Amino acid sequence: MRRPVRAAEALLVAALLVAGAASAACGSRLPESDFERRGTAPATTGGAPVRVGIITSATSPVGGAAFTGPRDGAKAYFDRLNARGGLQGRRVEVRTCDDGGSGVGNNDCVRDLVEQDEVVALVATASLDYAGASRVSRARVPDIGGQPIGAAYDTYPHLYGIYGSLAPRNGKPGWDGKLYGGTEVYRYFKREQGARTAAVVSYNQAASAAYARLVTRGLKAEGYKVVTEQVDFALPNFRAAAADMKEQGADLVFDALDVHGNAQLCEAMDAVGAEVTAKVTHVQNWTSAVGDDYKDAPRCRNALWATGSSRNYEDTGHPAVREFRAAMDADAMDAGKGKALSQWQLEGWAAAMWFTDAATSCLRGDGDVTRACVDAFMNRNEPYSARGLLLPVTFEERAEPPGSRRTCVSVARWRDGKGWVTQGGDMTDNCFDVPQLAYQP
Questions:
Q1: Does domain 7-180+336-378 have CATH number 3.40.1280.10?
Q2: Residue 146 and residue 76 in contact, taking contact as beta carbons nearer than 8 Å
Q3: What is the distance between the alpha carbons of residues 89 and 435, in angstroms, rounded to a whole number?
Q4: Which end of the chain has the least Cβ crowding within 10 Å, N or C?
Q5: Are 101 and 28 in contact (CB under 8 A)?
Q6: Number of C-beta neighbours around residue 399 at 10 A
Q7: In Å, how far from its chain's centre is CA 372?
Q8: Mind listing the pLDDT tens digit for each residue in 30-89?
Q9: pTM, full prediction
Q10: CA 87, CA 120: separation in Å to the nearest integer?
Q11: What CATH architecture does domain 182-312+405-439 belong to?
Q12: Alpha carbons 314 and 325: distance in angstroms, whole number
C-alpha cells in the first residue's frame, strides 16, 4: 500500500484562502509564548530543555481559527509528553509564533525561532504564506508535519509535510514546476456510492477557478459527467447554481469555496430541494463545528462528506485516537469551555509525535537531540504512520513524476447526533490504482 500524493489539496486550501482574503494582515511579530502566562513547573527533571518552534497564521485575513488546529494539536501532545517525563527527563519547550498570514511576518517568525531561539526543529507549521521556507531549508532545520498550504513542502529539502512528497525537493516546485495529484477521491465515490454526475462550484476568482478546473479534470478522467457552476465572488447567486445542479441530476458536489460560501450553497440546495449523494468537503472543514456552520441547512449538512489522509478523530475505538481525544478533552476542560475538535488538530498531534520519535532515536546511547540527527531520522525513506493516525507517509525524491499510483483515502460523513462517521471501513483499505494529474502550483 502506497501513501497518496496529496499535493493537489494544497491548491484547494490556497484557493479558499485567496478567495477569502483581500489583503494580508501584518499581525504580531513577537513569539506568542512571550504573551502567555507561565504555568506550573513541569514534571520533567533532567537535562536542558529540547526547544521546538511552531509557526502559525493565527491572525490572518481569513480569521483566527483557520490555521490554529495543527498548533493546538501539537501543543497538546507536548504538554502530555512533558507531564509524563518528557524526553528521557528533558522537557520539550515549545516556542510559538504568529506570522499574521503575511510573507514578511513569516520571515520574522523564521528569524526569531530558527536563528534567535535556535530551535531544534519546527513542528506542525500552518502558514498562509510560507515565505521563510527557503531560510529554514538553508539552515538545515527539519520542519516536521507541516500543512502543505503552498508548494514549499514539495520544493525544499529538510521540509517534511504531513502528507509526504515524492518530488526531488531541489529548490523548484515538484518536477519542472509541476505538482501531481491523484483521482482516488473521485474513484471512491464512483465505486462505493455509484455516483456518475458531479457538480463543481467555484467563484469567478483566479485561484478558486484554477482549483475547480483541476477537480473537473480529475472527475472527467474517472468518467464522470461534470456540471460546472461559477458564482460571482462579490454577489454570489447560489440559488441559481443549486437549481441548475438539481435540474442536471448531480450526484456529487465539489467546490472551491470558503466556509461561508459552502454554508450559503448548502442553504440554497435545501431551499430548492437539491438532494445529492454527497456534498464533498476537505480536511480543513473536517471539524465538530459543522452543526453551527451549517445550522440553516439540515438536509445538506447531513450529506456532507470529508476526505483526507488521516484517521477520523471520532474513531475512538483506535488507541491512538483515544489518547488524542483524552488530551484535547482535558485541554477544553482546563479552558472552562468546550472547544471545537478538528482533523487538523489530530494531524498536529501526529506531527508532534513524529518529532518525538525522531528525538527519542537521537537520545539512544550517548546521543543528543540535534538538528542533523532529527533530520536524518526524517530522511530515512521509511513510511511513517504515527501509530496509525496517518496513512503511511514517505519522502522518496523520485527523479520522474509518477504516472499512476496505488493510493488510499480516509472518508467520513457527517451525521447529526453522531458527528463524523467513518465510511468504507478502515482508511488503509480504501485504496485504488489511479492516474496522477499534473498541475501548476
A1: no
A2: no
A3: 48
A4: N
A5: no
A6: 7
A7: 26
A8: 444 443 433 333 445 568 999 999 999 999 887 767 899 999 999 999 999 999 999 999
A9: 0.90
A10: 14
A11: 3-Layer(aba) Sandwich (3.40)
A12: 8
